[in-house]
Specification:
This protein is 33% helix and 18% strand. It contains 30 helices and 33 strands.
Length: 934
Amino acid sequence: MSESEAPRFRYTAELAGEIETRWQAYWADHGTFHAPNPTGDLADPAHPRSGAPKLHVQDMFPYPSGSGLHVGHPLGYIGTDCYTRYKRMAGYNVLHPMGFDAFGLPAEQYAVQTGTHPRTTTEANVQRYRAQLRRLGMAYDERRSFSTTDPEYYRWTQWIFLQIFNSWFDRAAGRARPIDDLVAEFAAGTRETPDGRPWAELSAVERRKVVDGHRLAYVSEAPVNWCPGLGTVLANEEVTPDGRSERGNFPVFQRSLEQWKMRITEYGDRLVDDLEYLDWPEPVKLMQRNWIGRSRGANVDFPVQDDVIPVFTTRPDTLFGATYMVLAPEHALVTRITPEAWPAGTKDAWTGGHATPAEAVAAYRTAAAAKTEEERTADGKVKTGVFTGAYATNPVNGARIPVFIADYVLAGYGTGAIMAVPGQDARDWAFAEVFELPIIRTVAAPEGFEGAFTGDGPAINSDWLDGKDVAEAKAAMIAWLEEHGHGRGATTYRLRDWLFSRQRYWGEPFPIVYDETGLPVALPESMLPVVLPDVDDFSPRTFDPDDADTEPETPLSRKKDWVEVELDLGDGRKTYTRETNTMPQWAGSCWYELRYLDPENNKALVDPENEAYWMGPQRPGDCGGVDLYVGGVEHAVLHLLYARFWHKVLFDLGHISSFEPFRKLFNQGYIQAYAYRDARGVLVPAEEVVERDGRYFHGDTPVAREYGKMGKSLKNVVTPDEMCDQYGADTFRVYEMAMGPLDVSRPWDTRAVVGSQRFLQRVWRLVVDEETATVRVTDEPLDVKTRRALHRVIDGVRGDLDELRFNTAIAKLIELTNVLTPLPTASREAVEPLVLMLAPFAPHLAEELWARLGHGDTLAYATFPEADPAQLVAESITYPVQVNGKVRGRVEVAPDTAQDEVRAAALAAVAEALAGRDPKKVIVVPGRLVSVVV
């Protein structure tokens, strides 16, 4: 039927748009989805859910780009909206907010290209996202929305930074404590200063340096990831496995620079151990464990000339087999231990063809700096290195062993130095073969085994360890090292301290200034926020991407009238210099779950009562946190690890009651799409491609189809705006939820959306006459069979919604609609539950039908249908009847039939198969089968 021939009151995209706009305005005008707090500005004792059990559900909030949302972006948002709408109707006080992660590189890069201030483009992008999400009918509490770029938001980001800066980690207590407690311990003499002098004998500057060396946020000159092409340093997590920047794909080099860092490593054990409290997907937990990389072993001291090289090893039992040492090329001791001339007898293969050790080391360092971490650590590559000219002493046997530098050892892992035991390590074996170094086995390998043996076995060639198994030998060696002062048992981590400086403009300013000593000074809370100043040039100085020998220059450093500032910080008015780096984009997303709880509080990060209500532990042993957190698995390490760290510091300092931010995590899948290329390999717009006889054409040109992530670069973007125009928001919502399980990726197919529209049209027709717009529902009771079908669907839909199985819930609603459609009348007994169950998926249509059914208020707080248990009992049970293990008949009986009656009916059903034989045994398995043995 053409559109002109369609009945006047059919549910079309045009009618859907009118209904959706009207109900969106109603929800906004009435504050329908406002969630009441226990206390403060958002408390509302008259709210229909005040005092109800709470539910805090949160999405990983988006970065608002100028191109807006495509249909892949809102998959998780629609899922959480369906879930929270259901839970609100099921009696919960639901907090479901949405904010925007708006600092970061894309807006800044756009500003550099166009000259438009990042704030201007960011605010425009946020408004576009808000409009798109509103059009999709999202039930957010808009009072709690914010952008991380709002000064009143990043005021508290800066406040949290100050809490971290003014804290230290007490290893004895296993938690963060205020820095003033540390100062008090030094002053009282209960904690020794680094050089052993009494605290009172230290100058004011010396004391500050001692204290700064313990802070959880600190400035350090250390190896960093320098990206000349971006003009900034990057955290390890922002560098791809092939050694390039995630943003821009520029080369990244190891450089030693002074930067802000955070001691996330102090929380390594808790970040690993507390994963046990979390209801997270196991693959995500595994990724975090692997990233943290906790290893237990020993620190061993190897004397070298007048220095000591500390080495961490997980296999101290193999020390007798250490025949050489290897340092990372960037190791701080390399220059100091390198002699002026080669020692007598140095092998030619060890020198790299250079006249002096210093020349050899310098040349190798240059070559190593040009390699990616992946290239340096690849298992299959030929091992390279150069002798430093220095020898170390193996502490267990006094052996003199050469010290090399090699790129397969990284400065950022362990101590940046290894004791090489080629008999028990494949990489060491390969290196030893190239440089003709001794190989001594310290663990007995199976007979005939060749190469490095990494398995278990008795210790050999190890003096007093011989015969012990690996675990026993490890313990004995650690005890020996500690007794003789050559080392100690230790735990190390792959995790590095978090690099927290960015040489960017569009980020949170640090609440830090520097005085005449060059040491950092925290600004008082009364001076927050430190507002990001306007500048004319937003770009950091960038360089030739391949030029590693460059220095950062930040945009803020050029704002001289902002950098130099006169302040009175308690000791008179003085000139200070502001920190000109900004915080990384991750800063604002480390704590946003807390600001949702109390967004209008200008006196505290969050009111303790509100935090305890929404995120506090619910029972003994509960970690607390957001009840359900939904987002992509790509954030398994970066965002989630950083957020957990900040949360734990705030917990240690007594600001919050939960020690984990996200109690339950759900990773949604992705919507992917087909893209098309012509014979030249050039992408063509997907919407212009047609299929003919199983082939694809762009005009008359054949094109090849490929499958990938939806995006502008592949010319295959479909926007939710297009879908809302063509079908309506509710149809789009139903289609996305019906495509498949929420945690599974699936291909987008615009042609299939019409199926969801037809389903909603059938529901509309159950209630509304398409010719007259009159309500056609009657009060006639359902027949027994239909009533049972209704309650089976109610029971199934509730179970599906509780477990986020939206696709199967929709399938059940379609099944119920198909049952009701042929009936001569539409009974209110079935239609009203159907409309209420449809509400989470198609909320605008459900509201409209609910109103037309005579209800005067929103259904947002109507009671979700509950199944009558009596209607779920089966009318009959079919028993298969086996004779000697083979099914020979079936009997159908009432569910409450006594076993004797079941037995008699079963025997009657297989009388022909028994052929007059008397059964030896008749076994009735209630509800399942009858087994007859003859």
